[in-house]
């Protein structure tokens, strides 16, 4: 298989719009890298540049130590799964999967063997003679995967492959994609705007915003130590609460009248400096009144999610959300005293949005 | 809303029937006239049912010809018309599918200029540019040839526009999937674009075949020899105004024969044709 390396890759459209502003990272052989970000952040453009569907304005993309900037998509040894599947409507499922191999001049019996094998893996054997029109969304998705598998490529590219499926099927296909990728061990790049997909699938998560990389890391790292305010609010659901605060001393921030301990905080910040404090709704703990580090939270209304409840209200006069397992807190509007583990307090620079961590 | 469906249906049927009668009656009359002999028709007392001369009249007109102004048998004229209509239909599809493919899928300098020039020909049908076109055709010594009949009518933008609109609805992802599957421009054209365009091609074929078959002005200009004339010209020549010697039964039989091929083409391609005009699903 192959390692994929991106070195300072840029995309400038004619007219001067910079869609990707110099991105560098690499994906180890067999790795599953997810590019995640809001729409228009350049993640799809980046994927299409790896695929060869967009020209690379500057920088270098290499697949398996071979620079592919000038190589045609067909010769890059990649396979791509598109958002709308892009199956050939006039071909049968079998022909859809066989088409790429035929164009490569693969012998007929080899094509037949590979298509049948892929169909077996994906459980679409009974559908081989059908046309895409006669398939459900989930089945089309499998055929699109099958078309990628039969090529035995060095890299799989996924462009939001699950966004046209309903929620239940999406979860099911997500698990299948992960299993399949593990089994085949093919290096994969996966683009999505869904942070749940991003967290669950990746072993390397790349968060993008405005054509730039905001953070690269293991999904758990990105969740635990978001490098910027953008990442902090983008990853995690419901999003992290961001409250204005000030530095009160080394490792201490003040939120209005309340004092909060933050373990991951730079020591060189002047007391009184303005900061932004991020608290995840799911990290909030219940405290008692007057306890050190406790904050008053005025609950206004409650959303039931089944296993958990979301408490909406105000903290220090600002909108605030906390999440708790159902029935741990009486579901009544009113004042509640809360606290947060100092390890789980995130502090950001209000001007740059960067994490003020150690 | 409550309404009397039966009354509504009945009214609709009555109106439809009147419409059908208005359209069909002259056709019926033509057919009836083509089965009687000339004196019956000239008497002005043409019955409303077919007469006994069906086989005589059709045999004579197809293989012998009239005794009047044009003595060519109609079989030859039908062949001329058929060759001309086929050449126009096939030639136009061939040219327009290729030009539309170039305009939609290739980025070349002056692409939009090329498109607008093609578009402009919509405003210049043969009738408008008839004199210069005639001059060109005659200078190229194409008078009285099939090329002369067909080529000037092939050059027009309708087909290119139709295919351009259709190609623009083919999702870009199909092109991208083809690229990744290693299909070059020609393979994409042959394996994906043409199969997807079949219904559009069928629709254009029907329209262009009928258009070519019904041409009157252009064949009148470029053909002088009787052996090259088309059936539409033939009908005109059979109807002699001054001498009242028109063999009406034969002219009517020719008219019936002239109607036949377009009808056959429409019937044969009806399903594809209708699909091609209303098709939206890709």
Question: Any chance you could write out the topology, listing elements then pairs?
Answer:
The complex is a heterodimer of chains A (358) and B (282).
Chain A: E1 4-12, E2 18-27, E3 32-36, H1 43-51, E4 58-63, E5 66-67, E6 78-81, H2 93-103, H3 108-122, H4 137-150, E7 155-159, H5 167-184, E8 187-192, H6 195-201, E9 204-209, E10 212-217, H7 219-224, H8 229-234, E11 241-249, E12 252-255, E13 258-261, E14 274-279, E15 284-286, E16 295-304, E17 308-315, E18 318-325, E19 334-340, E20 346-348
Parallel strand pairs in A: 3-8, 3-9, 6-7, 7-8
Antiparallel strand pairs in A: 1-2, 1-4, 4-5, 9-10, 11-12, 11-14, 12-13, 14-20, 15-19, 16-17, 16-19, 17-18
Chain B: H1 5-33, H2 38-42, H3 54-63, H4 74-105, H5 111-120, H6 130-139, H7 146-154, H8 158-169, H9 172-180, H10 185-213, H11 217-222, H12 231-238, H13 248-278
Helix pairs in contact in B: 1-13, 3-13, 4-7, 4-8, 4-10, 8-10, 10-13, 12-13
Structural class of chain B: mainly alpha
Q: Helix fraction of chain A?
A: 10-25%
The mean pLDDT of chain A is 91
H-E order of chain A? EEEHEEEHHHEHEHEEHHEEEEEEEEEE
Q: Biggest sheet of chain A, open or closed, and with what strands and sense?
A: 6 strands, mixed
How many helices of chain B? The count is: 13
């Amino acid at each position: 298989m192959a390692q994929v390396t991106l070195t300072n890759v840029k995309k400038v459209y004619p007219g001067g719009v910079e869609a990707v502003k110099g991105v560098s990272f690499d994906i180890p052989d067999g790795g599953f890298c997810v590019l995640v970000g809001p729409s228009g952040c350049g993640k799809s453009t980046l994927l299409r540049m790896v695929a060869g569907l967009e020209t690379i304005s500057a920088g270098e993309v290499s697949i398996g130590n071979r620079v592919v900037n000038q190589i045609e998509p067909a010769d890059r040894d990649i396979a791509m799964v598109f958002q709308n599947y892009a199956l050939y409507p006039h071909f049968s499922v079998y022909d859809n999967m066989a088409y790429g191999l035929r164009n490569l001049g693969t012998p007929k019996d080899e094509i037949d063997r590979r298509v049948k094998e892929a169909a077996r893996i994906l459980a679409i054997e009974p559908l081989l003679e059908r046309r895409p029109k006669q398939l459900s969304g989930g089945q089309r998705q499998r055929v699109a995967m099958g078309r990628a598998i039969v090529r035995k490529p060095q890299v799989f590219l996924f462009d939001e492959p699950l966004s046209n499926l309903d929620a239940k099927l999406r979860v099911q296909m997500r698990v299948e994609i992960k299993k399949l990728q593990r089994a085949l061990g093919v290096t994969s790049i996966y683009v999505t705007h869904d942070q749940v997909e991003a967290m669950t699938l990746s072993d390397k998560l790349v968060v993008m915003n405005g054509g730039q990389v905001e953070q690269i890391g293991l999904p758990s790292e990105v969740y635990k130590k978001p490098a910027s305010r953008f990442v902090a609010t983008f990853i995690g659901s419901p999003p992290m609460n961001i409250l204005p605060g000030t530095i009160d001393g080394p490792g201490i921030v003040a939120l209005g009248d309340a004092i909060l301990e933050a373990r991951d905080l730079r020591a060189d910040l002047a007391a009184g400096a303005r900061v932004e404090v991020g608290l995840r709704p799911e990290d909030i703990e219940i405290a008692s009144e007057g306890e050190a580090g406790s904050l008053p939270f005025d609950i206004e209304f409650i959303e039931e999610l089944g296993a958990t409840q979301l408490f909406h209200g105000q903290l220090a006069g600002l909108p605030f959300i906390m999440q708790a397992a159902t029935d741990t807190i009486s579901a009544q509007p009113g004042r509640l005293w809360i606290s947060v583990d100092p390890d789980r307090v995130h502090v950001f620079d209000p001007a740059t949005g960067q994490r003020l961590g150690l | 809303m409550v309404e009397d469906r039966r009354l509504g249906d009945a009214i609709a049927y009555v109106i439809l029937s009147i419409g059908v009668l208005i359209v069909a009656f002259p056709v019926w009359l033509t057919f009836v006239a083509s089965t009687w002999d000339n004196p019956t028709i000239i008497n002005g007392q043409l019955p409303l049912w077919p007469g006994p001369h069906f086989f005589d009249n059709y045999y004579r007109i197809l293989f012998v010809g009239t005794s009047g102004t044009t003595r060519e048998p109609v079989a030859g004229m039908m062949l001329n018309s058929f060759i001309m209509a086929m050449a126009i239909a096939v030639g136009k599809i061939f040219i327009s599918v290729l030009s539309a493919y170039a305009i939609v899928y290739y980025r070349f300098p002056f692409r939009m200029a090329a498109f607008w020039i093609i578009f402009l020909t919509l405003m210049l049908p043969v009738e408008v540019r008839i004199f210069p076109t005639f001059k060109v055709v005659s200078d190229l010594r194409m008078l009285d040839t099939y090329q002369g009949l067909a080529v000037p009518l092939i050059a027009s933008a309708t087909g290119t526009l139709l295919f351009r609109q259709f190609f623009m609805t083919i999702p870009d992802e199909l092109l991208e999937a083809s690229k990744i599957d290693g299909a070059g421009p020609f393979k994409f054209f042959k394996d994906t674009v043409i199969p997807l365009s079949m219904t559009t091609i069928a629709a254009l074929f029907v329209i262009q075949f009928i258009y070519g078959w019904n041409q009157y002005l252009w064949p009148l200009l470029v053909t002088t020899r009787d052996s090259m004339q088309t059936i539409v010209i033939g009908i005109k020549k059979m109807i002699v105004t001054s001498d009242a010697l028109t063999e009406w039964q034969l002219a009517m039989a020719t008219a019936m024969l002239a109607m036949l091929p377009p009808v056959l083409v429409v019937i044969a391609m009806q399903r594809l044709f209708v699909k091609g005009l209303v098709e939206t699903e890709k």
